[in-house]
Amino acid sequence: MELKALLQADQDEMIEKLQKAISYRSVREEDGSGYPYGQGVQDCLEYMLSLGTELGFRTANMDNQVGWCEFGEGEEMVAILGHLDVVPEGNGWTVPPYESVVQDGRIYGRGSLDNKGPVVASLYALKALRESGLPLRRRIRILMGTNEETGSADMKHYLAHGGEIPVMGFTPDGDYPVINGEKGLVTSTFAKTWKQSGEIRLTKLMAGEAPNIVPAHAWAELRCPPAVAERICKRTAEKVRFLPAEGGVRIEAEGTSCHAASPWKGENASGRLLLTLNELPLEGELKDTVTFLAEKIGMEHDGTALGIRLQDEPSGPLTVNMGVVSADEGSISVRLNYRYPVTYTADDCIPILEKQFADAGFERTAHLHKSALYMAPDTPLVQKLTEVYVRCTGLDGTPICIGGGTYAKSIPNILAFGAIFPGEVTRVHESDESISIENLMRNAEIIAEAMYALAK
Length: 456
What we know:
The chain has 456 residues and is α+β, with helices and mostly antiparallel strands. It contains 11 helices and 24 strands. It is elongated. Strands 13-14-12-11-17-18-10-19 form an 8-stranded antiparallel sheet. The relative contact order is 0.18. Helices cover 29% and strands 27% of the residues.
């Protein structure tokens, strides 16, 4: 019996089990329960492991951090990596976020697509593969993480405590076709204190809310003599307002928000504000700092002025986003998010950028780095997943590289493969998140075929 037919026979049961999984509010919480990520996450993990046992798989729970279901024999293991934790539900839902409403051929609920739907599809894909009797030479393990949304500490725990590393595998927590490259990701905060001088003093500056979002708004308040304030307020600039304020001037800059993975799609309001401030007759350390940020970054997003412009064929250019800037009379803080191409390393950009900031008097106060991930198109994992995708869908299977990061970076020998199809409109992390029953079943078929391709 074909895998697709076996899965179709289980469709109603699969929907029922997914509805139950969605009903658990598996949002990370410090709730005093004693579980790593709270009672809700724990309840969902225990339910999914019990489902794995019910379906006839070997199951394991590593310290309530990671669970897995496994089938087959052999020294080598292939893995399908999914996660059970979800982001908070937020506002704006037209259906209850945890009641798993089925409506117009779609299953609604937080986690329906990200990532409980693909995990349930993986369990039934493994069931179909077992029932098919197809020969396998490797074990297949469905890893169920619990902390993807807030840092992937679950996979760090798995690796640090002897968790078996797969020879190859995939996470259905991204897009189709196979994502064979993810840019290196760096988020750093730089801060400095200053002593201002001159007749224009900065009292407050605010721009941006998160380092991975291009800021759409930025503003600064300046204290200065009335005559100076009057001259500044007569200035004009595109998408900038000069407004009188008590004791001085308020300057507001507008931009266009977008994700920092593709900053060319937006306009950085923090850069526009700093470029505007740099045209004023500032003095001393304020002038030096504003000039540095305006000239070295400004509205530029490819790192040219910083000396870190990089580009490769698979993934395109390095990107820089000045995502959050805040300042007062005595200090300034800048949070940068930059992403380097997949065939380069951190050594090609981090030391150069950090020296520029150090020379300008800044100190790095926070730093997060995730290395680039890349497998060439001719590697076995990429080829096998591509072949499965093309055969199952008839669509173009050319691998893609992305500026963002997926769960694949948390464990070796894993690439993102699904669960979102090209052109599919989703509401992941938004209200009314859902997955169509059709795509749930399409994913289950592709996952089953991919399991077989990697394990046979």
